[in-house]
Amino acid sequence: MAEDSSPLAAALSLAEACLQEGRFGEAEAGFRALLRAQPGRFAALVGLGGALELQGRRDEAITAYEAAIAIGPGHAIPFTRRAVLAFRRAFGEPPPPRRPNPEASCISMTTLGANGRFGNQLLQYGFLRMYAAAHGLEVEAPDWIGRDLFDLDDPLPEGPLQPVSEEEVDLVASLNGVDPAIHANADLWGYCCYPTASLSRHRALFRGLFRPGRRVRPIVAAASQRLREAGETLVAVHLRRGDFGGGRFWVAPAAWYGEWLEAIWGSLRRPVLYVATDDPAAAAELAAFSPLTSADLRAEVPGAEFYVDFHVLTQADRLAISNSSFSFVAAMLNEAATAFARPRRDQSRLAPFDPWDAEVLL
To answer: What is the pLDDT of residues 199-218, one digit of tens each?
Structure first.
């Protein structure tokens, strides 16, 4: 049956209304009925996950979100909610949100966690904190996986604020004082994939936000130690496959990374290659360099299984990213690398770049 058929669309709207109104049992029943009629309906799986989560049935909610991710792997909401629930099942709750300062003007981004996945979310939260610091505002942020990974304790949004979209306002100009307008008591909307040269004066603040929190720090420290024991020069590449492949999100051939590695390998002291990837088979394409992956490090962060890869990318001595905000942001955070490379489709190769003077996606 077509995704937009009227009876199913009406049933979906009704179930979503029940969810918004706090009638979680009715919402669950409505989403389950929809899924019996159309088992692969993405919005119904996400809604079912929400209804189960709000009833405290975490394991069932995770199952529903995982089913939604399998259908739409690039969608942010099930990715975020599954990550948060699975992480907290393993590690417990994040730091409690601070009480907001009633005297302070604030800024929020209530779509954080819903617009783009992990790399995008770091860009959005980072921009929010930059903007708040530049203009003396307090940040309010919704629940998202950053609270867990980085021990963040921002106040939760308390009420509706004036929406301000990056599509209608030059937020970067406002950040840097080029535009004198200051958007206080505003709810920002956007992906915040701005050319990084315009943000470079704030790089110390940005980098300071995303240090590993107390629960993941021992895990990634042990992973880093195993890599350093395997070699003296850590070379990392990111091969993103699973939810990429079309349009702006094109995938570079592994052969480009192999050519880049061949060009630098002989000049490095005891190099060791780490491949960060969402496709375990991808590392085999660089087998000539005996790559290691997260599986070799015996390091796991339940719910945030991607985080070991991300952290290693931030620590590498040489780094080649994919055309992805995930590894681009890791490059922004990397203070160790002496060379960065990224795929250039117009050149059919990897080319050098400066992560603090570049476009996020090409």
So the answer is: 999 999 999 999 999 999 99
Contacting residues for 29 by C-beta, under 8 A, at least 6 apart: none
Indicate the SS3 state at residue 156.
coil
Q: How far is 141 from 156, CA to CA, in rounded Å?
A: 5
24-37 and 42-54 helices cross at what angle (nearest 10)?
Answer: 150
Pairing mode, if any, of strands 186-189 and 162-165? parallel
Closest CA to 310 of 290, 333, 291: 333
* CATH fold for the domain made of 217-352: Rossmann fold (3.40.50)
In this prediction, residues 167-191 reach a mean pLDDT of 95
Distance CA 254, CA 327 (A): 16
Residues 247, 251, 252, 255: what is their CA dihedral angle, to the nearest 10 degrees?
A: -140
Q: Are 184 and 106 in contact (CB under 8 A)?
A: yes
| Fold of domain 6-72 | 1.25.40
